[in-house]
Amino acid sequence: MMPAEIVLNTHAVAVLLLTALALFLFTRDWLPLESSSLFVLAALATGFQLFPYTSDGKTIHAVDFFSGFGHEALIAVTALMIIGHALARTGALEPVGRALTRLWEVSPKLSFLLTLIVGAALSAFVNNVPIVILLLPILISVSLRTKTSASRILMPMGFATLIGGMGTTIGTSTNLLVVSVAVSMGMNPFSMFEFVMPVLLSSMLAIMYLWLVAPKMLPDRVSALGDASPRIFSAALHINQDGISDGKTVEEVIEKTDQLLAVKYVKRAGSDALTLPSRQLTLRSGDQLLVSDSPENLKSYEKLLDADLYSSDTKIDEDHPLQAEGQQLAEIIIAQGSPLLNTSVAKTRFADRYQLVVLALHRAGPQSPQAVADIDNAQLQLGDVLLVQGASETIAELKQQGKILVLDATSHIPHTEKAPLALMIMVAVVAISALGILPIAISAVCGVLLLALTNCLGWKDMAEAVNAQIILIVAASLALGFAMLETGAADAMAAGFVYLTADLSVTMQLSGLMLLMAIMTNIVSNNAAAVIGTPIAIGIANQLGMPPEPFVLAVLFGANMSYATPMAYKTNLLVMTVGGYTFNDFLKVGIPLTLIMWLSLSFLIPVFYPVG
User: Fold this and answer.
1) Whose CA, among 25, 168, 204, 583, lies 20 to 30 Å from 229?
2) 3-class secondary structure, 232
3) Is residue 205 over pLDDT 50?
4) What pTM does this model have?
5) Boundaries of each RCK C-terminal domain copy (predicted)?
């Protein structure tokens, strides 16, 4: 029998059903996160406009659900995103990278530990995406020089930055959201370093695990940088008119490659349809063979078959030669803030803009045949890798610009004369907020203004740094949290949680809430889990007659434990692609790490925030 305190009105039931649907949609690959977030906003606004809700004389207006776009947490997240992009763009962290590179040559084991600590420490103040982008080429370069597997160190490094981000109120967007929502509900604000001690103590255990244990649990996978043979790329071989492959059967073409060529699909001339190849199929001029192989083999097939590597229907011609003097292959990873993210090679006019030819596309997980057949028009996703070819000077210049992450087995880091200034602005933003002079939302906006006035970052660069997906998921999550709070749905869920855990101690209830958030954040968006969980946490505290701070921290810490799946956090996707990891690799290493952080923080939160 449920307790009498759990009373749900029609609007609360509708909000809970919409929340369940939203969490389901957030996990669907076939629906962009931006679309599902906008659906949530539209559904809330339309529903409350058509069916107004009034309680205690107060009416919720439909336009109130759009207030998330002006919420101080979203403003702070966006501004800090831009500042973090400026640090990466100007190379402000270059001295850190150079120092770590030198240390790796002295003692790899101790240097790996220091890399984990430095990555965690920097991520407490800067979004971890530029930190991961800083460390990726360094660790790849070190692994190539020492002939060791990068796959044993990349995932631990990525996880270390996630752990470090838990330590301050500005370490992650999740922290900012939880703190802001809690304050808007009447809780006293946390100072910037309010909960650094429990995170620091639990991080010591986690870092030791990532340093000593995790590398032994990960498989040896040779990086695709320098030696690209383990990395399989997909590309289209175009049959040329009157070439040696024109008029030959698929079987004859395969014979010319000593049976090495594996044809997955055939795209016939004048048709967009993809067909499974018959070995007796006669090839005609204009046909395309969709194949997957190493970069070296793809280039070899091009010569053997007198065929051209194609990306979409544009032939690689004399303006973009593949065999010119000084040409080299390079791999470009689609990272957060990249001008290629969520667009296509064709739309960005990549060949004309960068003077590089796109040869192939690598995407972690099952690849879409249609995307492979039309590389130019395939929408590029976070973690995708493009195989490109061009003049070595062009590739070096592209890397030096810092706009695109080039993984070419070197440890050069973008650097401009604005780097010290960008770093000083970031330090000032953090210091002003830490000292309580200005809230982080205001100091960060002032920092962005200074970046613009000092030309550290142009407005176009700032636009590229702002992630529409994050903006929409944050706004939608804030709207859901607002609806749950105002309709009483959050209080009802809190009462249900207290009822189900009534036989447990308060410490166990706190621990259970954190574990629930940790599970949710690995399945749906961590920001959604945080914003939905915060009003429930405060409701639980009110039901138990306890201070809200420890329960809010349980939500904050749990929502940051994005270790068990590659899609749980964007940097997981980056290291997954570069390290060649599988979904099971994340489960194998991430679940024990989650247990370490959950158990240690379950013990430490009541120590620093007594719950009776």
Assistant:
1) 583
2) coil
3) yes
4) 0.72
5) 220-307, 317-404
